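TL;DR need structure tokens for one chain.
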Amino acid sequence: MKLFILLASLCFTLHTVSSSLQQYQAIFNFGDSLSDTGNFLLSDPRAPLVIGKLPYGETFFHHATGRYSDGRLIVDFIAEASGLPHLPPYLALKKGQNFYQGVNFAVAGATALDPEFFYRRKMASILATNYSLSTQLGWFKELKPSLCNTKQECENYFKKALFLVGEIGGNDYNYAFFLGGSIKQLKATVPLVVDAITKATGALIEEGAVELVVPGNLPIGCSAVYLTLYGGPTNKVYYDKRNGCLKAFNAFAKYHNKELKRALGTLEQKYPHARIIYADYYGASMPFYHAPQHYGFTSRSLAACCGGGGPYNFNNSARCGHIGSKACKDPSSYANWDGLHLTEAAYSHIAKGLIHGNFTAPI
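>> reply
TL;DR here they are.
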């Protein structure tokens, strides 16, 4: 099923914008580094963050924008397909600025669960930000009076807006895995993470959202950082023969996605007037891991384009942008950008799968 009726006309052309594309007049995005367009960079402008300089942003923007990629992200492609500008990061908004066409609240490093969850488990040292999903929701509520005032005005406005709730939740697992947590231990937190996502989705519906896209997690077992940390020649039995990814970690991602879909189904019953759409990021990305050359990924299919060496070109001591790292000459021939995030080319394929393919479905 295509992402939404609005974008169906894009099957004919991406350059001729038909009148039907004006059905959505705004996009509001929540999430983490997979969709952050600058909030993390702006959250501490004094910090010497590598995403504030090249090679980040080199492909499309030709300068760093705060995006964790060489270019555009999935949310950028969805905005373009909708005939809308790229979403401004919330922390960049200025008084008097027109943000009627949408805002991006996503922050790199954000979690679905509140920071207190990690503080109680003595994991605070690894948190990249305290701007969790609930904080982002709070930002939206603060901004709402600037978008509409009366109940009728808000209803008319939000019924023509798209809300992207995620991807979010990946960092809740990343932080624990990177501290040595086991898959068995992390499975116990999946219901908590899923509950946080569905509660935020429900809260947005209560605020007036009508059409919401909630993505699942990517196949983390195909990520260069996971392959580096958990792979090895003695663990060949743990690799998927079809693509070289780590089977157990991909199975974990699928488990999260299954539980998320189940919870969204329950949420839809509570709010039958809303259209909740599940976006299958996992399914949309697996084709280019199974057949990378078919999608133009002619370089090492699982290695990072930008990194500091090693079997998958990920070195925690020389991460992309740091001393000792180097970016590849052609990011479009790689799916993985910096070990944990994907290239613009990979995000483009996922976005096409969501907009034109079979990787989105109403709950």
